[in-house]
Amino acid sequence: ASAEKGGYEHFMMKEICEEPAVLKATISPRVRDGQIQFEHFKLTDEMVKSCEKINIIACGTAYHAGMVGKYAIEKLARIPVDVDVASEFRYRDPMVNEKQITIVISQSGETLDTLMALREAKKKGSHTVSIVNVVGSSIARESDDVLYTWAGPEIAVASTKAYNTQLAVLYLLALKFAQIRGTVDDETIRYYIDQLMQIPDHMETVLQDKEAIQRFAAGHYNARSIFFIGRNLDYALSMEGSLKLKEISYIHSEAYAGGELKHGTIALIEDGTLVICPMTQDALFEKMVSNIREVKARGAVVLAIAAEKHLDEAEKAADAVITIPNIDPLLAPIVAVTPLQLFAYYVSVMKGNDVDKPRNLAKSVTVE
Ligand code: G6P
Known about the structure:
By secondary structure, this protein is an alpha/beta fold. The strands form 3 sheets. The chain has a 5-stranded parallel beta sheet with strand order 4-3-5-6-7, with helices on both faces. A 5-stranded parallel beta sheet has the order 9-8-10-11-12, sandwiched between helices. α2 (19-27) packs antiparallel against α10 (199-208), α8 runs antiparallel to α9 (186-197) and α8 packs antiparallel against α15 (332-350). Helices cover 46% and strands 17% of the residues. This is Glutamine--fructose-6-phosphate aminotransferase [isomerizing]. Its main location: cytoplasm.
């Protein structure tokens, strides 16, 4: 088994360390001569142009990837997007029609609720595009189009590299839709493609900083409760950071939108409560600084995740800062999730938990 882990102690760490390579494998083949190309894609330009709404459906980590997809598609392609948990979507007689595109996201391609939601959307006439990791899985076979995430086998129950690659595919889709609909000019498309192509290198940089995250985890693995607070894409990212931590550390954790802090969460902040604040969205940086002040005034200890260019300001606001390389804020979640995955990993290891096989959880939920 240790050979399978390629010298790593756990599959989860091995899989996190594969992120630069699998992102490259997922992005590069789809970029040709500065254009985004999907092979054998049946979705026509006409369908994209006349699309009135996009539904994104998934469970767990894939659902959190979908939340990022909503921000990216709405910003770039200006198509309204609904993101739904598959088990909610399928049972509420969803208003789906042929003028809508349905994107289904699943690492395994076998999650029962997601598969059933896909069938429901198809039955109602929507074109379906799946973002799947396992080649030939049920969801891949049954959707009209499939865009594979080339993450390779993911063994650890807690999903890591699959999420990063799901985001990469969603950004490619958002850019492709934007190009078709003319909502973004060619120069901007080229700029984002260039930014995407730089991501594998940025990921290497983030992985070189593992020890800083390990040291921080060493001071907090006994926490009773940990909060994640973020705005916009950092809110979506916070949802995933919080889930990762819950899954393998068994520490109670919640993610909140920064603006919601005053509407409840702040009542839970006590002396010493750890609050993790991704602040990768330049336009909302100052708003996050205010949120940090608010929780610190109640005794919170704050870890910020910020771009290198913001290190000084982030250090002034927070107790500790983990930096990510400077990248366009729209794409930041792909890179910024990795410190959160590593934090959950180290906390789980320090608590002596079964990192790769957490209690009560299954890799793929094929029953209701
Ligand atoms: C399970 C796994 C999660 C995963 C979710 C959706 O709960 O433990 O890691 O995110 O299912 O799985 P899928 O294969 O559809 O992405």
